[in-house]
Amino acid sequence: MMGRSGNRAVRFVTLTSAALLLLVSGGIGWTQSGPPALGLREQGAQAAPPPSAPAPSAPPAREENPGLINEMGKLFDKLPSILPPIKSPSETMNDLSRLAKPSTMVSGRVACPASSNGAPDCKQAADQLCQSKGYKEGKSLNADSAEKCSAKVLIPGRQRKPDDCRTDTFVTSALCQN
């Protein structure tokens, strides 16, 4: 939770320790010299004088470094705006109490009517079952299906047609709430 604390000193220590860890594990990125000469030199070329080292008393000016450490620092600065705010324990308990409504399980048998797409609408049947027991609404817990056929199916020798039988779905138990 150190990124969300807003304490810049904690973030600075974290970033500094991450930078040191990367430098120690990966090595310092010094410039590479050219390939070894193998004892051969061009006759007209002279070796360039070594570059002069900056004076140790004046540190070089720091520029914006688009490296990994700088990007991680930017991420830590943005982190509080990305994460949701922290709630107090009383707010959390209020949210949980709103979710946990008292409910009761009831049993019965109510047919699920067909919805506009032809599938059974068991939410409406669960509401009807709960309303018959004195509750406001309900959710289906258990459903049962049964095939209902016309008497024509019982005629011997008659071929069964697709529209002779239909499947009815019933809500048999529901969780009811006030």
Summarize the structure in short.
The chain has 178 residues and is an alpha+beta fold. The chain contains four helices and three strands, in the order H-H-H-E-H-E-E.
Layout of SSEs?
Layout: H1 8-26, H2 68-82, H3 89-99, E1 103-111, H4 122-132, E2 137-149, E3 165-177
Antiparallel strand pairs: 1-3, 2-3
- Separation of termini? 40 Å
Unreliable spans: none
β content, as a range?
15-25%
**Strand and helix order:** HHHEHEE
Helicity range: 25-40%
| Radius of gyration computed on alpha carbons | 38 Å
Lateral arrangement of strands in the main beta sheet: 1-3-2
- Averaged pLDDT: 77
Q: The biggest beta sheet, please?
A: 3 strands, antiparallel
Number of strands: 3
- Category by helix and strand content: alpha+beta
Our count of helices gives 4
Shape: elongated
Describe this structure in words.
With 178 residues, the chain is an alpha+beta fold. The chain contains 4 helices and 3 strands. It has helices at residues 8-26, 68-82, 89-99, 122-132, and strands at residues 103-111, 137-149, 165-177. α1 (8-26) packs antiparallel against α2 (68-82). The longest helix is centred in the N-terminal third of the chain and has 19 residues, at 8-26. The model has no long low-confidence stretch (mean pLDDT 77).
